[in-house]
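Blinded run. Sample ID left blank on purpose so nobody reads anything into the name before looking at the predicted structure. Input follows.
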Amino acid sequence: MLVHPKQRTRFQVQVPLTALIDIVFLLLIYFLLTTNFMVDEGIKIKLPQAKAAAPQTEEVITVYVDRQGRAFLGTQEVPIAGLFDRLKEMISNRENKLVVIRADRAVILNKAVKVMDIAKAAGASRLCLATEKDF
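Blinded prediction complete.
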């Protein structure tokens, strides 16, 4: 007579997916809340609007001009007389460097053009006047 041993039921291991899903959603929320959404902070300016504005992707030197006509490099105010030296120092070791002028839409045009002239005299091979996309 042939005896078959009794087969035991195997215990199946189950991973608790509910806790894993909760952790993934918490991480997703954390990264969404802490991600930098390309918000320019610092000098408060309203850019002029244009229908054909295109995003800028390469590294640039940005000069801000507020509505009073003051020039800023980053968040530091630079007098117009010292702007030439600072830009020349920043551009000196780079070839074909782009300088972006972000002037407030209420600034007197002469002040923005003066900053552009200083940047060109300092050695900027390319100049760009920043605008907002008009929707």
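Unblinding after everyone has recorded impressions. The domain at 49-133 is CATH 3.30.420.270 (Nucleotidyltransferase; domain 5).
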